[in-house]
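User:
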Amino acid sequence: MNKHKVCIIGCGDIGFLFDHNRNSDGALSHFKAFRDSEYFDLTAIADSNKEIRDNIETEYKVDVYENYEKMCIEKKPVVIVIATNDESHFEILKRVTEYKPLLVFCEKPMTLDSEEAYEISRLYKEKNIKLQINFTRRFLEEFYDIENIIKEKVIGDIESITFYYSRGLIHNASHYLNLVNWYFPETENEIQIVSRKEGLYSNDDTISFNMIYNSGMEIRFIGLNPTKLSFAEVDFIGTKGRVKINCRNEIEKYRISQNKTFSGYSSYELTESKAVNFQKALPNAVVNIYNALSGNEELKSPAEQTLKVFELVNRIREKI
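Assistant: Predicted structure:
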């Protein structure tokens, strides 16, 4: 099998250090996901962190660069991975098109600005370069299972959904805005702003808001103050049951049953609780990228989905 050459720009310090320090299944870093893949030859990485460069060069025998442009010129990768900070994505996404990869895999968000996102999307279409954005839930079977539960009305008609998030409407809430567009593509809704807090970036506030649909369904985003506390929850409430993704990243499934204490009343009964294995997301994304390059599958998280997220972001911001 001829392996595709891949180069990584920025390893994402937290994910890399987790994978580097533990012999775990799956991967939380792009480095491990591509290095473990049978379909790709991880040719080189470029990273500003000297400690990471030294670790990779010494322990993994992979070529390292401080300058990503030099790496791309010398290595001529088929796939370029961008795992740098949010603010850098726009310029790097533009620059790497000059090296003519077949596909670029970029950490979310694609950019922090909608006009920049549209510019990147147009550029990649003009140059016929595939662009995939790492919205991790698009690569996990658990979230396709939730899609089926909603579409097949296993928990009845959805009455309300609540999302808890922090650290910016684009930086973190974009994951959940992506889910809204995926699960509830209907656009006939009214947006009501509740509050506004600081995010990670000056142009990315954390906004609490409600979306009221014509069907009567209500979606609430509750934005929390930015901290390093890892907290996010999602709660889907239906007329026949409930699905909750709790702060421990477990998917809880409930059904409505007769209340054992109060006769004539009903309550939610927990029927299943299973952890989401987020370490499968990047390896699954790598397989999807290979299949897309082979013409056997569509990208599961193409740039077009990010544009739809920005359409929703712009609608929310217009209400402030």
